[in-house]
Design a protein that fits this description.
alpha+beta, 7 helices, 9-stranded mixed sheet, Immunoglobulin-like, 6-stranded mixed sheet
Amino acid sequence: MWSRSQPASGWYSADLHHHADQAEGVTPPEYVARSQLAAGLDLLLVSDHDSIVNHAPLQAIAERRGVPFLPSLELSPSWAHFNAWPLRVGETLKIDTSTATVDEVFAEARRLGAIVVQSNHPFIPYGYFASLAAHVAPGGFNPRFELLEINAERPDDDGKVLGALWGLWNAGHHYYLSGGTDVHDVWNFESGRIRTYAYVAGAPTPQAYAEAVKAGHAYVSYGPLIVPDVLFGTDLKVAPGASFTLPFTLRSVAGLKRASLVGAGTVVATKDFADAPREARVEFPRTVDGTRWYSLQVEDAAGHKAYTNPIWIDVVDVSRLLPPPKSP
């Protein structure tokens, strides 16, 4: 189903939640690398529970294979799990996550070098948003994370994650998507069956990839591929009342079924594909109507879906920016 991204396209993929052989994980680091590379992922990642012991061996493997490596760990208090990445290889965890508050967890993630912190499986009983609702997260809500995860092990929660993000986007908050499989055992579970594609203009270094995901220049996918004309996470500047178009190129080896444009949390336009093409160009004409963002959902003929970050709509009244006319 998957193929390695073409570097010339600028889109690179990673599985942003993956375990090796620590805690309940059973996969030695060399098999983490084999599984992720066999899945066609462009960057390697490991995120063991409260452990960085596999960073050095995977960094060595990545260097030999000529691929970037995202050193991560899953900070795992009983009330929430957070992936922090990319970290500095060789650092040591200096907090006890069993007693740490959310403020201490996030501060430790930054001390370890993390550019992004993602809230993993946020709606399971020990997910951050579930714990916030139950008032059991020590320290309550701390806004200093960047990503909410679509977790392949929890597909029934996809709608909850998207709904939470839509509410945040409607309020103007720039939290974005991540996608990870949460694989612990590569012999029985598939690496990369959901993945995060990020657009990187230059070389896909760990830092550049992290900054792209942090900025929302990304989407998550169980299969379909999406190339937008207007990059996700950016502002599309339009005049009041103006008409504009949101074009996308879509691909799926299983054949495309449907593309749905979401605006402010509601599906506002849909394109169905009766003949299940493997590639299609879609354009959604819109008129400025107060909607502050649009995102895309794509489903292929096998039922696999992809979800994008928003394109922000920035309404600019150009006439107010012009100097007043000079008196004759």
